[in-house]
Amino acid sequence: GPMALTSCAEWLWSGFPARYPELKIAMSEGGIGWAAMLMDRLDDIMSRSGYGNGWPDSRNSPSEVLKRNFWFCMIEDASTICTRHRIGVENILFESDYPHGDGTWPDTQHVIERVLGSLPVEEIRMILSASEKDGMLEPEETQMIRGVFDLDERTVRDAMVPRTQMAVLYLDHP
Fold first, then answer.
1. pLDDT beyond 70 at 106
2. Following CA atoms 61, 63, 67, 69 in sequence, which dihedral angle do they give, to the nearest 10 degrees?
């Protein structure tokens, strides 16, 4: 959370997202609990103090640029999913982090049900498939993720193949 907030603020104030409207930045591994607070704070600073005088985009506020250029990744943010409308549902991505100790596998479907199950179906679909829509994933990745998040009788183990054997190629050795 705190490192993601700092990284996001540094990216934003670097000016690159303001200068490059097509730039897409995904804030992974940090949850979403801090994103709405940052947007609120940016709006407050810009409206009542001189701190934002150097902002390089005269047409879009910093919080608007956040919504345009940034995606915020969540795993198990049950207590902060209520901030999704401030962040923009379309700007939230679900990450399962497979294989990773912080990930949800093999219980991804149960986590989705517990964290997102009370949301409207369209919002759940948006959170689970936004990266497909925005072209952030390759077609094969999209198909694998559809298999994971298709909440029928299949389990995550049925849809994802563990990759326990990996080869390493050292580029500094001929």
1. yes
2. 70
